[in-house]
Sequence to fold (393 residues):
Amino acid sequence: MKVIRLREGRERSLSRRHPWIFDSAIARGGADPGETVRVEGHDGAFLAWAAFSPASKIRARAWSFEEGERIDPAFFRQRLGQALSLRQRLKVPSEGVRLVHGESDGLPGFVVDRYGDTLVAQFLSAGAEKWKKVLADALLDVTGMQRLYERSDANSRGLEGLPEVTGWLRGDGPTELAIAEHDWKFGLDIAGGHKTGFYLDQRENRARFADWVRRLGAQRVLNCYCYTGGFTVAALAGGAGELTSIDSSGPALQRARANVVRNGFDAAQCEFLDADVNASLRRFGEAGRQFDAIVLDPPKLAPTVAHAERAARAYKDINRLGLKLLAPGGVLFTFSCSGGISADLFHKIVASAGTDAGVDGYIADRLGAAPDHPMTLAFPEGEYLKGLVVIRK
Fold:
């Protein structure tokens, strides 16, 4: 067994069971990509079993903090069974469920979503890639399912020195699927859609948005970065009468329109714009348009803290423009899915945007990812999605 030894004073995070070991913390030792290593403190004391990644700044990711535990097929089966048990207890109101959420489920770099009878997995770390066959076999065994599609095409693969890989790992069949969520139905494409095909992490927030639209009697709704129209459908379900949905992807907008029709709503109520969000918000402002409810759900702008300053300016700009368009008494659902932007910083960004817009508001709620995307006590980085519900004064 290969060993990596940490520099003196760099053991603290591992002693708190944080799973990441950065290259700067390692005094000596190494291994092949994905190989299991014994991690020791500067004094030789055992700290963790971890998967080594020579290409990444996160040089190793901990599998286990128990010295007597073996990292073998039985270990991965046990971890998958534990993750599945949690999701069963959550009783998620959807046919789309995140079954495995990487580090939070003790499986760093491994993500699995279930869409009906189909599983979609992402192997995003050198360790997950090394154990891919074992993980795939164990996953099908514990779920009793037969179809597994791989979507290992996230940018983080490059940071691990891994190529992008997509395609069927087990089974085959159509990649165009449909799932039920709450009282709605959504179409998705596991081969070409964002992430694994759908934003499951916003499930509960879509239901909350429908409730706020209904509660406030909001009629004019703007959904920015609408993707396949999840919040658009939610607004219609809440009783909205006039929807404007913006995205820069034509195929996503086609699917959004199809999802509106799929749920029995009149597509004539909806305007779908293939356009830049910032430019559209400025144009709406110049035209004097206002909205009773607005969703701002931009893509990840700050994957790490190093990108936070630049991303903060972008988040502030769209929130400033959005708040100017919000009618008095209207509701704004604004989000950041950037790991490099903390909840506290995001609050400050939105507050600064309000000051620049000359708009004040009440924070009626704070939002996060759905409960099947958990954050653990030892891994606060798992809180990547954060949102605010703001009622304009």
User: Anything to note?
Assistant: The first helix runs from residue 12 to 15. The chain has eleven helices and 20 strands. The chain has a mean pLDDT of 96. The first strand starts at residue 2 and ends at 6.
